[in-house]
Amino acid sequence: MTDWWKKSTVYQIYPRSFMDSDGDGIGDIQGIIQKLDYLKKLGIDIIWLSPVYDSPNDDNGYDIRDYYKIMREFGTMDDFDEMLDAIHQRGMKLMMDLVVNHTSDEHKWFQEHDDFYIWRDEPNNWKSVFSGPAWDYDEAREQYYLHIFSKKQPDLNWENPKLREKVYEMMRWWLDKGVDGFRMDVINFISKDPALPDGPDGDGSQHFMNGPRIHEFLREMNDEVLLKYDCVTVGEMPGAGTDDARIYTDPENREVNMIFTFEHMDLDGGPGGKWDFRELNLVDLKENLEKWQHALHGVGWNSLYWNNHDQPRIVSRFGDDDDFRVKSAKMLATCLHMMQGTPYIYQGEEIGMTNVTFDSIDDYKDIETLNMYKEKLEAGVGHDDIMRSIYAKGRDNARTPMQWSKDANGGFTSGEPWIAVNPNYREINADAALEDTDSIFYYYQKLIELRKSEDIITDGDFRLLHRNHPEVFAYERVHGVAQLVIYCNFSSNEHRFDRPHGEVLIQNYDGLASGDELVLRPWEAVVFDQR
Ligand code: TEU
What we know:
Elements: E1 10-13, H1 29-34, H2 36-42, E2 46-49, E3 53-54, E4 66-70, H3 77-89, E5 93-98, H4 108-112, E6 119-120, E7 135-138, E8 143-146, H5 161-177, E9 181-184, H6 205-208, H7 214-224, E10 232-236, H8 242-249, E11 258-260, E12 269-270, E13 273-277, H9 282-296, E14 303-304, H10 314-317, H11 325-337, E15 342-346, H12 367-378, H13 383-393, H14 430-435, H15 440-453, H16 455-459, E16 461-465, E17 472-479, E18 482-489, E19 495-498, E20 503-507, E21 517-520, E22 525-529
Parallel strand pairs: 1-2, 1-15, 2-5, 5-9, 9-10, 10-11, 14-15
Antiparallel strand pairs: 3-4, 6-8, 7-8, 12-13, 16-17, 17-18, 18-22, 19-21, 20-22
The structure holds 1-O-alpha-D-glucopyranosyl-D-fructose.
EC number: 3.2.1.10
Protein name: oligo-1,6-glucosidase
Keywords: Glycosidase, Hydrolase
């Protein structure tokens, strides 16, 4: 078994919003099958599929009712098998979402196995990630159960070995079917401090993130399941720092191949959390990514991402989604894809999809957004203020339908989409991108090819340049004497540097600005190859 995933690029599909084949307004598995050639053309190696299991959809599938059944709206198990075959036929792999920190309250375990969940006579002071207390009272049982997310997502009790065996059995069932790995939802939350102490201001995270038995559980999962298969794993781990990540991803420890860190995604949030948004300080971003590049080099492995189904669109967030949408999308792609790690592309990122600004709160569907809106309104915050933070940070920014064409609803559905399409679909869509040889799509395609052909991208050391420059992110990749020099302008201002020697490997402008200097134009990205 090799580390094939180190040269791979992953594409995340959020099935509800990807492609609807039957006109019910909800994306589905047959829709995914229709678009596999598109992903192959982009150069994708692995597809990460957000949950497709049977679910009442309180949190769009992250609340699973039956791990062995496909969500009715998405299709059947036959559709799934057909999709898995079609993916494999094209030489791609499939990574499933594994959501085992919690289930739906409609999972039969919740009725049948009290000891699979976490019950207390008295709740502690923890607050739910989706607003309100993290505990709900069950009349029949006359006790409270813990739910870090919605009250329809009760947390599983990993202290119980019977529960753990049920989870491993389910994982083996999917791997035996032929899936190629798992993206593990909030997997560093599964071990809680059994005393469940109060946390400061109701923040219990220090008692449930990276908890006392987390490494033991992950190792057990490897010994019981993962090591028997040639598969890839990525742990979604909010609150894991670089010291934790070194332990989680060091192959000697048999835990996960890589993790999703959140540190770089939290830099534009304030002390009040993600909704308390502020301008990104680029120096913070540079130093954070540098820290991760160094910490895992030669030890574990990084995942590289700007987007997923929980994050606003990167071109609207760290780029310029107006005049420089295409340039800044390519710049952001360059900045990320030249680093060491496995890059993840979220659906629509490859065509530069942007955030949305719906006028009415009724157009929003995300439980986190809707609960937060209600809570803030009750606390006296004005509608406009709340909407501003939703525009900047709401998860539905990522969840509007994929924009395939300039046809009605962006070609996503012939029916009424479950969430409105971004009105800019007439201009921003996959058809248009495929017709334009200079599109963001083809730029990503080239970056993906370079990662395969140039070992320095996978193996080289990372060295930050111009550390304190407030608007330019520059770094080198060094492998022996071989060297790549990457310049990325995170602004629409011009910046001048000494011109590095070497040929241009990839850039988002046509040729360099003339002269002996390197003149970085607005949102310019250029990579010099000094080998
Ligand atoms: O998200 C994990 C998580 O910690 C969330 O709080 C995430 O940071 C948040 O959405 C940002 O506001 C995972 C899934 O990716 C997310 O979609 C689920 O809602 C959540 O777990 C519960 O399963």
